[in-house]
Amino acid sequence: MEAFKNLVVILLSSVLVNNYVLSRFLGICPFLGVSKKLNQAVGMGVSVTVVMLLATFATWPIQYFVLEPFGLGYLQTIVFILIIASLVQILEIFLKRFSPALHKGLGVYLPLITTNCAVLGVAINNITDGYTFIESVFSSLGCGLGFLLAMVLFSGLRSRIDEMEVPSSFRGVAITLIAASFISLAFMGLAGIVDNLFA
Amino acid sequence: MLIDVLTALGVVVAVGLLFGILLALVISLFGVEEDEKVKQIRDTLPGINCGACGFKGCQDYAEAMASGKAAPNLCIPGAENVAKQLGEILGVEVEEPKDMVAFVHCNGTCEAAPEKANYDGIATCKARAAVFGGPKACNWGCLGCGDCAAVCVADAICIADGIARINTSRCVGCGLCVKECPKKIISMVPQETAVAVFCSSRDKGADARKFCKNACIACKKCEKTCPHGAITVKNNCAVIDYSLCTGCGACAEACPTGCLQKVSFPDLPEDFSWDE
Please, which residues have CB within 8 angstroms of residue A105's CB and are 6 or more apart in sequence? Predict the structure, then answer.
């Protein structure tokens, strides 16, 4: 029971409290770039979630069974980037084959997941937080879902902004960034909520 | 020390090799064969991804062409040579691309178009346009700071009497000024154009007239006069459809405000020279 509770706390806290986009400000590029339309935002969110999970499945064993026994912890970043890049390539091939429409919709942003700091951030944070394999999987699932949540919320907001009469000097990127900061502020209100959930 | 370097090297190489092989396997199992036609077209294109064709890059343009959604004569850097080759690949006749030149649709000279305010700030059109649409009373006219002249690669634009003028014999048709103009009053017209609209105002007749003596007042005389149906008045401003225009000049004679004119450079100072 205690272990299960621990996993739920990790999952929820990475979705809500430590949301990668809105609290840690990682992965802002696709957050601003692909959030114009809801279906593309969902596609991007799901892709990032899948890549985060895949990355954790690959990077955790490599960290503990390859890098640490050889005392090569300092190679973590470069090896992880290598792994994530390959995984994204594999995902791209699958998408091209099985969902060409989504592949086309994501366009240039799919290759950008390759160098997405949120994905690398999850992989590295899992190690620095000292999570076990199962905990890592839950944490990266939570981070991915948090990213998806942020994307969906933000694409909804942006479609509302599109219908509004925005002062001309704020139009475009400016109002987008302001809106992003408001969502981020709203998420600050969730700090501490998970710790007290089971108290 | 050497052992450390070798293990680090070995591990990275091993991981890279592992994922490389995995990637190769996945590609050979699930990869999608690229359309031979797309590949051929892309190899013919210059491959500099300039975006002048209006697509995201050479690959995007190649795909659009292969699926028949784009004409083969849009590549500007490739010019006729590439267009011809693309026509052969696609099996279509290539229309000779018409030579286009940029044209400023405004004749709001200092004398004709009064100012509503004194502007004393950054001397670029973009900055001027950001303050209440610029100091000119007419909100659609040339701001005369020469943002277009600054980007012109052919030195074909000058500012004379408060508005930009384009020397069509120098214009190479790159379209950079069209993109740069914050008022969007420059457009590309065919080089052999005989008449053009010297106004972009969307204000109603009376207002337009008040803000600029040379403005189009949307009287629709030209629309009625044109024997070829090439002129329509859209948003209170005459627009010429150059695919129908024969250059007879009937509209220019009929226009009461002189905003439709045979193409020339009116009101240039007498001692003006393009080479100054």
Answer: A39, A40, A43
